[in-house]
Amino acid sequence: MEIMHTILSAMWFFVPAYFANMAPVFAAKIKWLDFLKKPVDNGYKLRNRSLLGKNKTWRGVFSGVAIGIAFAYLQRYLIRFSFFSSISILDYSNMNLFFWGLLLSSGALIGDMIESLAKRQLDIKPGRPFFPFDQLDFTVFGLLFGFVMYIPGKEIIITLMIVNLAVHFLANVIGYFLGIKEVWY
User: In the list 4, 8, 38, 174, which could disulfide-bond 87, CB 3.0-4.6 Å?
Assistant: First the structure.
């Protein structure tokens, strides 16, 4: 039971980063955000290769950060319920939630952009696997940015790494069998 509690605590702690990482995919479906559909790298190249690619847009950055901040505030609200308070490692009532959400979400998104930069320079096409960096980019950088306000215990950090590797792999397998992803790994 203690292992499950640690997993839930780690995942609850990282909620702003999770939702920030997912937000750009959903924001791409919102037409009124199309004015932000400009590449973050502005089309610049390094070694005659795209820096980040056309899929890393300002729409994704702004939506990811906004959603991450919103979920930090939602956590403060949900902590009133015993389940959430029992798995929380943070005292949301005494935190600057705007800054906390900003740190975790921007860290997650910057981690994803750094991984994209590496993939472009290694000539790995968008959507193709880059194990284990696909799975850990947002985790490592979300944590690093979050360290400005809070450094969790090593059990939380290790649990996040393991859980995020496993969840990403499982999501790819499911996506492959549903015909959403081209590769299962």
Answer: 8
Q: What is the DSSP string of 38-58?
A: -BTTTT-EETTEESS-TTSBH
Which DSSP string corresponds to 98-112?
HHHHHHHHHHHHHHH
Q: Which residues contact 11 (CB under 8 A, 6 or more apart)?
A: 18, 160, 163
- Long-range contacts formed by 24-27: CB under 8 A, 24+ apart: 24/57, 24/59, 24/60, 24/61, 24/63, 24/64, 24/109, 26/63, 27/59, 27/60, 27/63, 27/64
CA distance 151 to 106: 17
Per-residue pLDDT of the chain (185 residues; tens, 9 = 90+): 699 999 999 999 999 999 999 898 888 888 888 888 999 898 888 888 888 888 899 999 999 999 999 999 999 999 999 999 999 999 998 899 999 999 999 999 999 999 999 999 999 887 777 878 888 999 999 999 999 999 999 999 999 999 999 988 887 788 778 876 666 66
Using CB atoms within 10 A of its CB, is residue 55 exposed (0-12), middle (13-18) or buried (19+)?
middle
Cα torsion angle, 55, 58, 59, 65, sign: positive
Write down the pTM of the prediction. 0.89
